[in-house]
Amino acid sequence: MKYIDEFRDNKIARSISRAIFKEAVGLPHINLMEVCGTHTMSIGRFGIKDMLPENISLISGPGCPVCVTPKAYIDKAVALSRLHGTIVVTFGDMMKVPGSYSSLEKEKSKGGLVNLVYSALDAVDIAEKNSDKKIIFLGIGFETTSPTVATSVIYAKKKRLKNFFIYAGHKLIIPAMKALVEDIEVNIHGFLCPAHVSTIIGTMPYNLIAKRYGRPCVIAGFEPLDILQGILMLIEQIRSKKSKVGNQYKRVVKKYGNKKALELIKEVFSPKDSEWRGIGILPQSGLALNKRYNMFDAEASFRLPGIKTRPDTGCICGSVLKGIKTPVDCKLFSKRCTPQTPVGSCMVSSEGTCAAYYKYRMKT
Amino acid sequence: MTMKRITLSHGSGGKLMHDLIKGLFVKNFGNPFLNKLGDSTLIHTSVERFAYTTDSYVINPIFFPGGDIGKLSICGTVNDLSVSGARPKYISCGMIVEEGFSYNELEEITLSMKAACKKAGVSIVTGDFKVVEKGAADKIFINTSGIGEVFKEARLSVDYIRPGDKVIVSGTIGDHGAAVLLAREELKFSSRLLSDCAPINGLVSSVICKDIKFIRDPTRGGLATTLNEISMESSYNIGIDESQIPIKEPVKALCEILGLEPLYMANEGKIVLIVSAKSASKVLGRMKKHILGRDSKIIGEVETRRDRKVYLKTKAGGTRILDMLTGEQLPRIC
Amino acid sequence: MCLGIPMKILKIENDRAIVTAGQIRRSIAINMLDRVNLGDYVIVHAGFAIEKIDPKKAEETLRMLEEIQ
Questions:
Q1: In 3D, which of A181, A217, A239, A278 has the Cα closest to residue A19?
Q2: Do B16 and B131 belong to one domain?
Q3: What's the pLDDT tens digit per position in A14-57?
Q4: Which residues 6+ apart lie within 8 Å of B48 measured at CB?
Q5: Among A64, A95, A360, whose Cβ lies nearest the Cβ of B330?
Q6: B228 and B124, same domain (yes or no)
Q7: Of the residues B119, B150, B181, the one at which a domain ends
Q8: What is the pLDDT of residues B62-71, one digit of tens each?
């Protein structure tokens, strides 16, 4: 596959790995955070940690929508799927995420109407074909996904659909990174920044992190050579005591991002305070539907009284997401909490830090 | 035009059922054993050791590119016998059909079972047909059992596996899982990919020899699961070189797009063999001569360490543990 | 957090396009892009083209990668 296979060449990977070893000689222990869950998965899948020197650690960040979606959101989604005459439509990612007492997968097995789609536009199609049912689409994901969901709302409006709703759980990445660097406990020397969120938002927003907070940022693609080069670029910055925004993924990411996509987000959504699983409420870190799209807002359209969300006990998801602790520090890890019986969302997503640790038994 | 449908009466033991059995099943599966329609079938055999297996087939969709539930139900059981080192001979077939199921589809499924039996050289010697109320089953479920005669040359057991033995796979992996996923309309992808669903007894009998230590068919859970089972049962680690694993482009592409791992995708016409190092290239050569083994590859070997794990040397050059699959793989966007 | 795969544009119809990769095809939305041409490679995420791939920059990156010692 073009633009994939070239970026997996193992000879080049080995020489970048050697360059990283050379560049890291004499440096103290360095923690780099890969902000994005897709980086986490790629790092595991290609055995990247195996190609890094001892003094370079990769920490998985909060950029996995499944991991950061709070239990209360799942509890509501479950309740929506139990309403008479509704179909909950979702990306496959959310199916296994546990709420307080159930998950969408469990509801489906009990006969609940839960449909899985690959694209938000497919949810609009389902709404058109099932005019007697109310279609509730779970709008999750970061800046890459929110313009696609915004488009589905705009299309639904054009088609005058009265039975299409969004339950908005979208998140924004910069407020989360800001919260991380402001936490004095956090021990991160540089950020490997997401490929496709950056495609939408551009390189500029990271200046805040690199300039004001002095943490080097490098945007990198998701293929192994991209990741290795991104790590090398971060170490070069750290060695020369610089802190700027580097762009390894120039073939796709531009300085100002994708303006059309940003306009779509702005047209349909506005920032709001939002709860992140394990981290808590972060100001202006989520998206809510704008007033003029109120009729598509599931939260405004369905009354769901009496949902009680059970608090987590013992789960250290929050500290794991902040990079303060690793999954093996958790007393539930691989005991009560496994991919078959996940407690926290970090274990649910195969991209979640805990699931990735469990699956690949990563070096800590 | 009204479509002919299966009703509860077709399974009630009366004339309708009798006509269906004669007119559809005996007509197509007919052989001296089945034609007697006895309460059980008397079979005979000339060997000392048999292999005996059973499996139930429930699949959605029931028709997929490259096969259907009927073909699958014969191939699956034939293949389970084959990888035990047996020559498949006799098959039993139990069908459970949901009321209202289309007669034409039942006929199509029956015909593809007939074709698969012919290809594999097996006979359906006994059977059962039931109809359940609408909603009590999803369209059609098929159970088949099979009896095979064990080859004299077959010495297959995980106990014979030793470090240095080679791991051979008989062709591209993940074809069936990907074809079924593509056939599900809701994902809206299209491709010409076909399921690899096929009886592999011909391939097995063309290579069977005492230097083959173990054979398994990587069906549900895919290659990764089969390798883990072999590692756990033999206690030896297995090292696999990802770059040697044959994967078709559409399978690879679909997996990249949907965030799935081809190593966990089901196969229905492939085998994994553990072969002694000295005979591996000879066995590989013979496999490549068979139409179902043309793309065979040595993908790794049994290691000396015994922590019962499978290690994958990735395409990028790193190494990681290749785990068992937990739960069903779902398409994802993140 | 976001899978995105390079796919090639085969056909364009208003704000939709047929794309392909590895002999797999799908209809996707291209409303986020200013101008796309047949043969362009785009990054596809959840049924949307989110950006074009710049072939020159891709080559540049590959050349740089090959030069790393």
A1: A239
A2: yes
A3: 999 999 999 999 999 999 999 998 998 899 899 999 999 999 99
A4: none
A5: A95
A6: no
A7: B150
A8: 999 999 999 9
